[in-house]
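INFO  loader      accepted 1 record
INFO  loader      residues=157
INFO  predictor   begin
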Amino acid sequence: MSRKPARRGRPPLDWIDTTQMLALPAGTAVTVETRGRRTTRLVGRITAVTDHTLTIATPTGGVELHESRIVRGRVVASVYEPGDAVLKRHVPADVWRGGVVRTEGTDVLVEQIETAPDGTATTGFGWIPEDALEPAEARDPVLPQLPRGPVPARSAG
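INFO  predictor   done
INFO  writer      dumping tokens
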């Protein structure tokens, strides 16, 4: 009689297929893996579902996905996770920035640093709706596409 060794590590994630994704109600927080080369997973809340499309409100804007682009998805607890760096929409990063502590539904508890015009900073905690926030990396400048081809040799000089 042989025994299987106990599985070690993190348990597998509960992925769902496209038809199950299209059956989810609006307002559900999901992460979606899409077809295509070098695509990142989308994380957001479902805003609309039709027979063949899924519209998701991500922190950086709305995305409409046809069912043929969806590989798989899963339901997540919230759009933001503890430790995520966030900024308030339309507020400069040098005036207000924060870090996610926890979430409850669509409300996010943020440890925030607010800088006054005189340069003094105040810290504190506050509940902010997730649609009033954006990830800090959303404001990072987009780097230009590097030219493809051979790398030039260094000159011996």
